Automatic annotation (TrEMBL):
InterPro entries: FtsK/SpoIIIE/SftA, FtsK_dom, P-loop_NTPase. It is a multi-pass membrane protein. Residues 153-332 form the FtsK domain. Pfam families: FtsK_SpoIIIE. This is AAA family ATPase. Keywords: ATP-binding, Nucleotide-binding. ATP binds at G171, E172, T173, G174, S175, G176, K177, S178. It is found in: Membrane. Its main location: membrane. The lineage of its organism: Bacteria, Bacillati, Bacillota, Bacilli, Bacillales.
Amino acid sequence: MMIEGLSIWKAAGVVGSLGGAYAAYTTLPVNIAMRKLNSVIRMGNLYMSIQGYKGRVIKKYPSFSRKDIRIYLNRTEISFVLPIGLMPDEIYKKKDLFYQAFGSELEFDLSKDKRRFFIKAYNEEVKMFDYDQEKIAEGAKDIPLPIVVGNTQSGLVVYNMVENPHLLITGETGSGKSIQLRSILTTLLTQCKDRVELYCADLKRTEFHIFKGIAKEVVIKPNDLETLLLKVVKKMNRTSDLLNKHGLAHIDDLPKAIRPKYTLVAIDEFVLLKKEKDIMSMLEEISSVGRALGVFLILSLQRADSTVMDGILKNNLTVRMAFRASSAVNSRIAIDSGEASEILNKEKGRFVFSMDGLKFAQAPLLALTDAKAMLEPHRWQETTAENVIDLRNNEYDVEEESEPIDEEENIFGVLEYEN
Ligand SMILES: Nc1ncnc2c1ncn2[C@@H]1O[C@H](COP(=O)(O)OP(=O)(O)OP(=O)(O)O)[C@@H](O)[C@H]1O
Ligand SMILES: [Mg+2]
């Protein structure tokens, strides 16, 4: 009896510890993530169906194993392989399910062969931060034409515009577009002015005055922009002739001695150009052939719908920064996806960055005074002492912010500086 009693207790002990081990196993973060992924795939009907033997339908689901789930202190990384025939778009269409399962801080990436999906689910959102000159200079170093994106969950992102030409920035009023442009252009002008000529159009007349005297040209009127673009197109044609003459395909292939600088045209408040047909057709031309010729565009506006921006131009603006959108429809107009409408009004400078996948990002906050201080040494560097006095007296001692805009006056008209 004693022996039997003992074995019952023993058996209970074994079952108990097995049960405990099982409970511990199922609550392992890896297993929780696997279960969530499984249910997202099933609930989203994410499968490819094929006809099997005797007309039976076989469902092929994305595949993954334990080693495709990685748990880190600040994030969970998940990846899975699509069956051939299941298009990545089908996954993107069901993105909301992934958000429901894994939280709001997700980053989606796709392998080049479009078979493997990578999803990173972060525990915390990216915080606002100030422009840090040293850190950004370090990030921009060695990049031929560095565009500062800002902080993503994986840290500061800076990309090369030569490889990813033409940027579209959208977002409702007050969402952070102009501050982002300020930071992008200030970085370019302070880090690689010797490699790029910057042409700016500030149709709202509030932002780009700080670049006067450093950028090649700063204009505020559509007419002046048209003249500016004519020059850019001419320059582009000259580069094209040069490439033809040397039998080369890309500006970077030209010998250094004869290689022209890159050209960047940045336009804030693009919507004000909507009726300017000539300007539009030149921008379209630049967006179509500019890449190989080293001519790039950054266009910023609230809503890039077809009444404002032609389809060809929009399609050629392959990199997108979508700041807060007022509706999912507006977000989709910018990035073919609704995320930008989930950004809250108070989340200034937050946006969805679309370049080989989608990521939430936070733009650095670069205050006007800080941008001016950074730019100042570059402004006077190439002008003679005489010019400094001259220009100061005539052009620069203008109070920018409080300056009433006089339609007749063209103090910020075309200002050209020879480098
Ligand atoms: N990266 C940022 N970090 C923190 N605050 C920001 C950031 N960007 C913008 N802001 C805040 O939001 C305000 C509006 O930004 P900004 O002028 O860039 O908006 P906008 O999108 O250009 O608006 P509009 O379409 O009206 O020109 C700024 O004055 C600043 O206070
Ligand atoms: Mg603005």
